[in-house]
Amino acid sequence: MGASMARNLMKNGHKVIVNDVVPESVSALKNDGAEVAQTAAELASRTSTIVTMLPSNPHVREVYTGSNGLFSTASQDSLFIDSSTIDPAVSQEMAAIASEKGSTFMDAPVSGGVVAARDALLTFMVGGPEEKFDEVKSILDCMGKNIVHCGKVGTGQASKICNNMLLAIGMIGTSETMNLGIRLGLDPKLLAKILNMSSGRCWSSEVYNPCPGVIEGIPSSNNYEGGFGTALMTKDLGLAQSAANATNSPTPLGSLAHQLYRVLCNNGYGKKDFSVVFQTLKEEE
Amino acid sequence: MGASMARNLMKNGHKVIVNDVVPESVSALKNDGAEVAQTAAELASRTSTIVTMLPSNPHVREVYTGSNGLFSTASQDSLFIDSSTIDPAVSQEMAAIASEKGSTFMDAPVSGGVVAARDALLTFMVGGPEEKFDEVKSILDCMGKNIVHCGKVGTGQASKICNNMLLAIGMIGTSETMNLGIRLGLDPKLLAKILNMSSGRCWSSEVYNPCPGVIEGIPSSNNYEGGFGTALMTKDLGLAQSAANATNSPTPLGSLAHQLYRVLCNNGYGKKDFSVVFQTLKEEE
Amino acid sequence: MGASMARNLMKNGHKVIVNDVVPESVSALKNDGAEVAQTAAELASRTSTIVTMLPSNPHVREVYTGSNGLFSTASQDSLFIDSSTIDPAVSQEMAAIASEKGSTFMDAPVSGGVVAARDALLTFMVGGPEEKFDEVKSILDCMGKNIVHCGKVGTGQASKICNNMLLAIGMIGTSETMNLGIRLGLDPKLLAKILNMSSGRCWSSEVYNPCPGVIEGIPSSNNYEGGFGTALMTKDLGLAQSAANATNSPTPLGSLAHQLYRVLCNNGYGKKDFSVVFQTLKEEE
Amino acid sequence: MGASMARNLMKNGHKVIVNDVVPESVSALKNDGAEVAQTAAELASRTSTIVTMLPSNPHVREVYTGSNGLFSTASQDSLFIDSSTIDPAVSQEMAAIASEKGSTFMDAPVSGGVVAARDALLTFMVGGPEEKFDEVKSILDCMGKNIVHCGKVGTGQASKICNNMLLAIGMIGTSETMNLGIRLGLDPKLLAKILNMSSGRCWSSEVYNPCPGVIEGIPSSNNYEGGFGTALMTKDLGLAQSAANATNSPTPLGSLAHQLYRVLCNNGYGKKDFSVVFQTLKEEE
């Protein structure tokens, strides 16, 4: 993901310095014209505009605040754009430290997968000070097509986990509904059509229907390969639950959706597209 | 509901004979030109095309198979169109009896409320033999604008309860999501906009958003008055659970949605629009 | 089950006439001294005290009210004792018909499995008129050791489905808790001991712990063989949900327990003991 | 809570130095013979055996690792016993820091309320190195009657949150079951008796039945006053969910129990005993 983003920055004329734990990713980018920094600390000593894309909370904490981290060497007035999907509270924590150092940290998680990253079609949900948004947008425009300012720092994360929680609920709900309808004698395509012209419609029923054969060219019609992995969805639902806990927000369906996806992961479906929940509901006694 | 339907039939030139347990409804229709039958049995003895609209399973059983019921006097080749929302198994039971008597019973539950009934804008989901569908459609066209043939008898009901189960899941999910996002610092209108341009979108987020003020002119912006009552939604979710039980279909979110709406009913929200679930989630500690 | 019950009646000196759909069961009982009736109707014509043990609602309806059913020939003042586990509403329906005919129908579902049936150690939960309880008890005493009068007809069923709903909740809860504790580094036997001396204790943690090896001689320590099958538990939870629907009783955990057991059935665990839920939760990612 | 614990230490002949943010608590203890430290740092500079009792994760982090915290002045070979109920991961974090400094940190959360604290009847669940357990036990024996060694550091917390998760599930399950049974016509005391002689029994059905009048002298028979507050239970369920997240442990019922208790808190029941869930389920439509 990060590699595609770096390439799109270079395509748009930016000079890019890269750092990654995987040597192969780094050397491929080097071949494509990127400079290389051996550590996060070195990177921050050589540029004041830094985009990060990391897997989870502890990685972000380590890369920013570790002994060889970005904050250890960053100059004043640095701009940090973090595209990781993490807990909004961690984004706020990083932003507070950046602010003490006279710099700015903004969260900018993405939606869209590997293909959207390659084709610069990502959506970025950005949280942070409004006066910095234009600058951030000019950079993210190289990598995405929708750059939305969501509010103060952390609201980019908030937007993403809210969206994905509702997405998961809609997907499981659509799967339950399609399965129930089929067992009651309805033709799957006709049922999808009826839902989509009625109040039951949602993104999962309309453009990503989990029942194989209803829509061609999506994971459900390809043995649930590709798409958005169940393990990644489970991770995002975990972030939603942390945020719900921290704010005392009741999320009964979001919470159950998280549990159901966790069971799918534990049962070996982690790498399948998250629409695979349909298949696991339709088993017959 | 039935009264508006009868008026729309008369407007389209049909002679209508009515029967109802509420004398006021009957006399109002009489003033408008309807003839009156004292019992269901009398009604069936005077016409062979009969439309019924009843509250629940036992009412349908009584009106059709009771000692003064429609089947007691109906002529062969009668056509029964039942617009009640009931268990598909009961529709199939009635259809089997009708068939033994040489008649046809089709289920045709509606979606759309009192206003849609008045304006002949209802959607009818019709289950029953294909060869009778044109005749049924010609009648229902007087009262609705979408007449969909869903398959054999019972599939009209199946379509409606599937749609409403997914609708309830989407509504509660949207309510949880809007509330969580707001507590995380997002502006409600901006959050709705982000969801609606992303994969979280559903009917409830787009056209019936449960957060007051996001969309004008809907129940959530009018103290949850009008609209589709929580008690009616709870009834439909109960039908969905019966159908799921009868077919061994797992519906974890549908089942929890049913429980959550039942608690709302028990807490006095039965007559509020079903989007009121948002309000009950947002209470502060 | 029924065969063991019949043998225990004979052991206690009762003359027994049997009827069953499985010829092998009938001939085995005949060898042991039972007389045989070819139909339910014949049975009811030859005795006025009748004990039934049937799998589900429709079987009870058929055996009692079918054209060759018990009610078709039963003499006035017959006593029907139904040990099936069914919907309390169906028990009440049968009791009403019996009452019209001058007879008495009492529900008396059992708890305890095949071994308890053989050894006359069943518990019977009896619903029906108090003045008939002594007579019923004198018969059931031959087959069980606890005969409890629960109230009017249907309350025997109510007691059983209430107990089994709470049992299922306790079993899934214990399974979640044991698994969580083990993953947090606790020794399973020590965790069970701590729960059992504290407020977390329940029947499932104390005498039927679902974690293999914690207690010897129970299904969890024998690959979940024997015991109380997941499919039977799922059936009882379905009855609980019907009863909850009929009485508008909120049962969020009972409802989710039902869904979780249904998924287990659909995934092929129907014949394993219901404590197998532990195994399905503990799978690793 | 901490005050009672300090008094019981003094009663057993220990010299006690106290520190607290509430001046009244401190001066009351001073009157009873305790010495006073102005800060945590001062306290740790004056003794090498320290017992802490704090409300939540951040308080523990602050008191131990803050600039005026215990670790800032503690001598080598100090023994820290933390009786707070917190995330096991935070206990492990504190233990790791203590260990680096040549000291020992053990978690020892309690079960039992204010009265048990006063009467030295608490249960302590202790996590930490076995070779230190005897020393810890000799201190905790002054304040409690059951001192259980659960394993390495963090397992005391793990035991407590496991117990309380299962307790919450049992309490909600018992409430659903009692309410369903009553609506089905069963007498509450008889139902409780039947459950308690059968496999449905649990601590909540036997000694803390949530239905008013079934057991005298407990919160449910006193308008749900006293006992274990819903807000505290909700906090513990939040810790259970964090631990479940951190270990990928599926807890569908535990998760739903958490959500249900959170809604109760938001609806104003936070200070009522956690058995109040019965009352909120039994409302009539």
From TrEMBL, chains A, B, C, D:
The active site is at 160. It is found in: Mitochondrion. Residues 154-279 form the 3-hydroxyisobutyrate dehydrogenase-like NAD-binding domain. GO terms for biological process: L-valine catabolic process. Its main location: mitochondrion. InterPro entries: 6-PGluconate_DH-like_C_sf, 6PGD_dom2, 6PGDH_NADP-bd, HIBADH, HIBADH-like_NADP-bd, HIBADH-related, NAD(P)-bd_dom_sf. Its EC number is 1.1.1.31. GO terms for cellular component: mitochondrion. Pathway: Amino-acid degradation; L-valine degradation. GO terms for molecular function: 3-hydroxyisobutyrate dehydrogenase activity; NAD binding; NADP binding. Residues 1-151 form the 6-phosphogluconate dehydrogenase NADP-binding domain. Pfam families: NAD_binding_11, NAD_binding_2. NCBIfam families: HIBADH. This is 3-hydroxyisobutyrate dehydrogenase, mitochondrial. It comes from Trichoplax adhaerens.
